[in-house]
Amino acid sequence: MYDSNPMREAILDAAEKRIRSVGYNAFSFRDLAEDVGIRSASIHYHFPQKVDLGVHLVIRYTERFRLQLERFDRNDLMGSLDQFFKLYSDALIVGEKVCLCAVLAAETMSLPPTLRDKVKDFFNLNLNWLNDLNAQHNLSKTAPRPIEVLTCLEGAMTIANAMGDKKLLTNVIADYKKRYRALIN
To answer: How many CA atoms, within 13 angstroms, populate the side-chain half-sphere of residue 65?
Structure first.
């Protein structure tokens, strides 16, 4: 994994929970210190500035996502897509939160540039994976465009959370599965 220091991991876990609940700009190091049970100076020891914390958190989140993507059998188009969609539905249904990077993307205008760049890296990872999957299965010209899939997943997750109706995301996923199945049948 990205970092093996238990205190740094605990701080990152607390920061992820805070951001996915209230956003990047709505918490302080004092909040995290209270969550973790340490002094805020200890947070600064591990992450001198809030942007350092944010960058490390998004790198960790992206790396974990990338590791999941690498486990998928990309020779099995529908199996890979099922697993990809499951990453999103699990975040909403099991974790009861929206994607960390979706929350940060909503705050893009107020994020430091280095943090914005890491958020872009997460989305590019998703887009590249979908592009590669489409190309591998010769679907580049007929499959839904990766940007369409990603924006619909992220948007449906956000709206489902706002509306308190997780079926909204489930329905979007079901529609994409139908569209892909129609391409291979």
So the answer is: 26
